[in-house]
Amino acid sequence: MGRVLLPFAYHEPKTVAEAMELAKRDAGTYIMGGCTLVPSLRRRQRRDKCLISLARVEGLDDFGIHPKSGLRIGAKVVASALLPNIWAGKRFAALHEACEQLYPPHIGNMGSVVGNLCSAVPYFDLPTAALALDGEMHVTGPDGDRVIALEEFYVAKFQTALKPGEIVTHLFCQPYKPDTGSSFKKIYRSRRTIEDLHKINAAAMVTLDEERDRIIDARVVLGSWGHRPNRYRAAEAALIGNAPNFDLFVAAAEAVTAELLPATDMDWVEKTRFAQARVLLRDTIAQAASRAKSRHDPFEDATEMLEDAR
Ligand SMILES: Cc1cc2nc3c(=O)[nH]c(=O)nc-3n(C[C@H](O)[C@H](O)[C@H](O)COP(=O)(O)OP(=O)(O)OC[C@H]3O[C@@H](n4cnc5c(N)ncnc54)[C@H](O)[C@@H]3O)c2cc1C
To answer: Which protein residue has the closest C-alpha to ligand 1 atom 9?
Structure first.
């Protein structure tokens, strides 16, 4: 870090079509806040010669939440935009918490949500949270529009399923089912000894039945382990059909760690990481379940009242 940037061409198109044309003509790279891209250019991890800013492109700044139509976050929306939104906090708590826990916090004033997801950095927080919320990337490109589920979006470390020239226009998360809660937690130590091994994040979404005494749907995601965040189907299966309780959350966390492979051959590092993952997952699932159980949603009530009144 601290090295000067090498020269590059810089464009500020006003429309998506113009941006795609420039990307094709000059083999350019899109840039939003630059929080991932600029440090990697400085470190010479990337050597892009042409940057195409999306900051002035029209139509990429929509940010909407509705109980019936879900969450829509345009490519230009920065992470801190979610923080004051009470409905984001209530209905999409996992993503709201991931944005809230960005460190240092001011990075959320510049870094976009979509940019964080497009970076495909294995230890970033927002992909873990958005995956637990069944996020989808809405993409436009030279061959037309398409939707990529976040589960299919990450193909390798630092690599997404985007084709050359494609722009993510927005992230979309389905509306919550009733009696659903979600949660995001992370463990982050500033002392980074072996790459980012000391960082782990987890997210969960839990849906209860009408009586709120049995789990009918679940998502369990662990990030910072391997090249991408992953859903753990065995843990989800262990939760579904059962009454939420502490032993069940422990069993689900164990089901995840049983699938994990050590990243190093250092016993003490792996013991710590596995123990941290177990606790983090247990607490994240427990909090999602507790939110589902105690959920009183004034937004939903108000929407229903308005609809009844019409
Ligand atoms: C000091 C520091 C601390 C940080 N702390 C955290 C943290 O605690 N947790 C965490 O999760 N993250 C953290 N980050 C990462 C930060 O949140 C991301 O770098 C930021 O959100 C990326 O958004 P951006 O708009 O700056 O993306 P950019 O850097 O502009 O772009 C990132 C990548 O996405 C591509 N891209 C961007 N937008 C689009 C689009 N619409 N369509 C297609 N491709 C696109 C770009 O080509 C580039 O490859 C930190 C970063 C820094 C510098």
So the answer is: 102
